[in-house]
Amino acid sequence: MKLKHLLKEAKQVGVIYHYTHVGALQDILKSDELNTGVGNQPYISCTRNKNFHKTPRHGLADGKGINCVIILDGNKLSNKYKIGPYNFFANGLDDTYKDDDDIDEDEEAIWTEEIPNISKYIIAIAPAINNYRTIEIVNELGSQYNIPVKII
After folding, report:
1. What is the mean pLDDT of residues 55-60?
2. Can you tell me the distance from the alpha carbon of 98 to that of 147, in angstroms, rounded to the nearest whole number?
3. What angle do CA 123, 144, 63 make, to 5 degrees?
4. I need a labelling partner for 83 at 20 to 30 A (CA). Which of 10, 41, 62, 132 fits?
């Protein structure tokens, strides 16, 4: 028996976070599918940084637009999908960093345009801003779809 048959190690991606807004979260949970949501984008954008929503960029900290997060099991996802670092602001986007300017964001790309049965990979959902209505909607969605709701 060869050594590669004895080793059954999976890639250790850990927890990754997909930021979105409550309307998209409702659609994702209802359809049980996560997709790029953008025309020709060949990946789904995520981050390893659980405090990403606290940074004053990308429409997060100001409470406009992106206001909730889907917490995903990157280990499970990596068994079926290629996941790797990327730099959204790099010239010539591919699956590697072009510079180190935004490397602290821990940006990750899931290299597919859609993930069916996304509920298999969801650990929890969370509001990303301290807004009563957003928190209320995220809690309702958690109850409706039997998904844990966390405060991050």
Report:
1. 59
2. 37
3. 70
4. 62
